[in-house]
Amino acid sequence: GLTAAQTLLDSNYKLQLLASSHHFDKDKREEMEGGEGDEAGGGDYRYGPNHLFQSAKALHRFLYERATRVLQREVENYLHHHHYSQQNEDRRHQEDHQPLVLEVQFHSLLFATQGLDLAIPSRFAYTDVGNHKECKDESGKRKERCDPKLNARAMNDTIFLECPKQRHALVNVQFVNESDIEGLDVPGLNPAMRNYEAILGRRVLERTKLEKSRGIMIDLKINWLKENDVNSGEIDVWMGNETHYERSEAVCVKVNKNSISTSVACKTRIVPTIDSATTTKTKTTAAAADPGNTKSKASSEDQRPNLLVIMIDPLSRLQLKRSLPNTWALLELLGYVEFPKYTAVGDNSGPNQAALYSGMPLHGRQDIRSTATSTTTSNNNNNNSTKTITRTWLWDRLNAAGYVTMKAENGCISNSNMVQSIRPQTHHGQQLHEMFCYSYDRPNCLGGKLTAEYLVDYTRQFIDTYNRGEEGKSEASSSSGQRKPWAAFISFIDSHEDSSTLISYLDDILLSFLQDVPMKDTVILFTSDHGLHYGPTFASKLGEVERAQPILYMRMPSFQTKQLKDLKDNAFKYTTAFDVHETLIDVLLKRPFGQTIGKKPLAASLMNRLPPGRIECETTKAIPPKFCSWVIDKKQCNFMMDPPSVFSFYSDIPQNNRPRWPDHCPIRRNHSAHTGYNNANDQCFCATDYRDWFDCSNTTRNSFQNGITTEHFSLRSCGHHELDQSLELNIHITKNEQMVSGTRALAAAARSDSQLTKSHSEKEIKSSFDAQPNIIFLEIDSVSLSYSERFFPQTWSLLQKHKILTEQGGSSCPTGWCAGVFNKTSVVGQSSIVNQLAALSGCLDYKDTSEELNHYSRNGQWSHCPAGGKNSLGMDEGAVVKRDHWIFDVAKSLGYITLFGEEFCYEDSPYVVQTQSAFGLDNADLTLDKLFCDLARDWIKVKGKVNSQVKTWSVEYDSREVPDTCFDGKSRGEIGLEYVSQMWDAYDSSPKFAFLNALAAHDYSLDAAHSSLGAENYDRTVYNFLNKMMSRDDARDTYIVLRSDHGLQGGPYPIDYSTQIEHMHPWTAIIAPANHQILSLETFSSNQNRLTTGFDMYHSIRYLMSPSLVKGNDKQNSLLFDSGIPPWSHNLFQQMIPPNRNCRDAKIPKKFCPCIDERDDVAPSFYVGHSEQGQKFSLPVPNYDWRRTRFVANKLPGILVPRIAQSKYDVSFNKYVLRPRCNATIGSYMDEGMLEDSWQLINNITSLYPESDVSGGIFLYPRQMILLTYLVQRQIIAFMAENILTSDTPFRICETGFGSGHSAALFLSSAPNIEVVTFDRFDRPYQSASFTALQGYFGKRLKRVFGNSCSTVKAFDRTCHFVHGSSLCKTDNIDLIHKSGAGVTLTSTAMESLHDESVYFGKTAQWTSLVQKRCIEEITCFEEEERTLDASLYLARGKKQQISHKFCFAVSTGTCMTGSKQRPVPKTWNKSHFCPNWIVPVNATQ
What is the pLDDT, as a whole number, of residue 1229? Predict the structure, then answer.
């Protein structure tokens, strides 16, 4: 075992625990020691599922520790069983001198992989739900149980595990250049120290021989490496180039390499390798591979773009939206072109990456090499042909063309057909493969850092080293002075694991990296090779569909804008990786190079319009037909196979070999001290089902018991309830003759119904009532079918013993009992309430207009029930609900004695159907509520929480220390079953219906090893109960229903995919007497494998309860009372369910539908009930961090995103605003820092869109800026003086034409109470990004209205306090005035002439119209100072020119305002306020 483990570890396999014969809790010694993987030092040697063994020594300790624990336990059991003491052991040993020999066995199964897959796919390997805020108490201590109810993507919940930084912080390593110590980081040294550089310089010079020889520096915590550390053998150093250290681009150091827990640190760099000889050789080789390549590249090098390919292997389009929401949003914001019909060409990475990187098909693993022999089969016959394929990879072509290349992947997989396994011959990247093989930690970490972070850092170093910008040549330019374009191919394999968890870690990393890439001259591909092609989700058809739907986003450099139209048009056609390859050849190498199939081309460049055939998948030759024709069979409900579950790890271990609860409650009837009167200091309290707790200290125990007559239970407590030493609980159900008489009278009234007597004889009706069976309905909350198979083995053995046998001759039940297990039962909603409502009333919790329903309400809770049926049971006097629905009303009306039981006090509980529906329990004869409410109140009293906010329904009695709650020798589960048993004894001559909801599986323990222990105990209890009830003399008249409402939906476990799928498959079984007259065995047997729900269970119980007329020997019948039975339901005993029944037919909501072919999306979500629904993902909007000048995540999976502070400036202005004289500056009116910051944000954004036209902006007009600020501040003062504005009311500026956002930023910087509403189409690529950035800076004071301002301003229903027209709409100024009251200032964009025909004073211009209608007055116009207009601006039309534009201000008269009128404000300015040199005359009446 250990030898094999070491061999696998040496081959870079990861060893994980798959199965084990034993499992232990921590003992006291382990709690004191530190352990592997536990950074806090509180050892954890429990070795649960997926435990990672990082060394053979760690595996050895596991085997030794487990075997030792097993032996220790066996010795203890032996001594306990034989009542040995050390003394008699010594005596026996002296007598025979024979040692006691015990042989024990311990074994386990390990799982090994080079990839990232887990032994059992589970998010618990990467998450710690116990770190959720809901799982901690007020002091921050973890609770034993919790129900965090994680949201859809577990956003902003710090539950995802980070790399073990604390353990790996022991060591730090860096490359060192003796002549340059800038940028080095020595732990423990503070850069603020006066002698920091001197100390750092000395540290560089005084390195050990090992460090100096390798050009590195190693630090251990805050200590410098010493020679004796090097010689200790505990330090291992790996260099990317062990022959020439100076060429190493990666270094790793491992400390404590011989221990179980090692510390690792790595560092990367780029060593420029542009060598003319090497480049020439590469060109020659590539030219030989492509003889047609004779064109010289040197002349066009400066026009060739760089290339960045970001590959995520694998990732489907839907998975991008699920797991990388911020990255998805950023791609949209940055103007990437999405290809929504991009399709895979092969099943896995090999053929898809080969198509992308070589443009050639891959027929088999042997083809992956550059030169390979391939065997192919002809399409027309079975003849095989062999040929030699010469494959030229894209990086080889680019090497030959003078590109500097890099390819790297953040994984260590060498035995696959993925392209990385061939070690691509690029200038950079090869060393990273070995670095990622050096060490591994979860979650996909190298030391204390994610491998994805290392890969991105290395890529940044590569780009920084070779990128040529406008500021000058890079250090890596060629000796001839020519720049060298670069090409980087990076691949992330974090999504290559089947829990769909690790991919989420990339979101923040990619969000940051994509903003660092120089986009102006770089072709960027953000792509994947295919969707996930194995694992639990791939078991469904939808999983197969997603496999064929990889992502493709492309962004072209600015000098490719002329061809962008064709590229964008092609985005809506079917495309493949072959097309992308041709596109890259076209753009980077300026020539086509393609493959063909027959006479038709296999691929085409996306820079040219694709042929019409690409509209359809089937006519796109490169796409395999199986990826086009997805035929999903919706004629039959196909359940998806349940995914692997961590619970199986524990259920596979024998119960005696793992933690378990006691089999039985201890019998503690120590009541002798309380048989008479108590001591003066003692006090006793008693309660019954008719009486609340009362002081019974002066009543003897016997007197109290003798006083119980018709009461069903009694409680007596004379001490500490929590220790269970004095509590007495007695259940004594006796027949209540009055109750029996009442139910018989109701049944008689039903029999004498006029409608029945008209059509049936009295004898027929009476005989049908005589056939009513007893019914036990035992519901075990939160148990899926798979969960029951794991943790209810004894109950399952009973079901198997009595299972229906099916042979050619038909079905039979040899034991006399027919046990049917319904393998395709589905939930109809998420919670117990909805599913119990269906099973106990046949009603819906929502309105369904397609059905005829009655609508009932009680205490504000609505239920919607079927209105059909021939015969009704009527309505109780004073009631609002017919007796045709609620099963307890139906049973009571038909002569049944009824019991409703919950194992807790449900009064006022928001989680039960009896308080959250239109139905109550007024007609239930027996309930357990009073008993458990009395117990809850006693618990609250004993715990001293009488005056607290603890609700009786929230009381939890059990804990880890006292797991199974015991009351006077009875477990909570036994109490309800005892009620049922005594009820059957007391009412032997009446039909009985008992419903009991058990909570044994409702355990939210954070420790998965403990969460099922209550269920296993209850399994033994149920097994004994069923055997007892099935052995009664009257058993053949009893039907037993074992059912759950849903699978586990609370606690930490719904984050796991297995729990999410199992939630839809509740356990349902029925045990029926074989010869009962109303059972059709063939139908009952067949329905076991048909889609069923709680509605069908309700229909079936109604069939059992409701008298029916049996016709002949074929057991065909007609119900006497069928009103209220759902028409969409089926009787499991009599009606064959159609094999093509689907969720829609069965009233199962789509997101809970287990018929996998009816679903839009079945991938893992982050909580039950939050299933991500197919195409309904909403595009999130990242925040813009103005301090870092970049977009940051809005929300991240499992990571708490801190709130971004807004502007650092305290924007304020004086109430006395200086008039703008001729020497005024913008700084006279505002803190220019805010304006500069906000405009810098805009520049940062627009620089990302070099191909987009920027029309201009207010920054061109410094005088208008000054005057606008002055007018705004004056107007605010006037409004506040007139009380039009208060401290809570914003001053609203309405502007048309957002542009890049400069004017909006100017307004917002002018005063703190300004709100800008901007009207624009937002159809330029950079506009939404710029708006988001400014909103991140200024907050919600900036708002926008999408659409054509010619219509949106008219529809705007708010008042504007200041208006600025600056759009291309020819009515925007007029529309703004219609929103403005008297005194409001109108301003508009600067124009070349004031007599233009669109804005100011041309004959048809807007201001001319406003003057003529007397809408504005006080018109004042100004001339801007002359300035040079940059040719890059759209207004310049490509020519650099001098401009001197003009602009005007006016005041609204208020006469043209539409809608509600605004109070007039005094005019706040006139011509005398302004510099006369700026004013120009204008004939405003022209």
Answer: 82
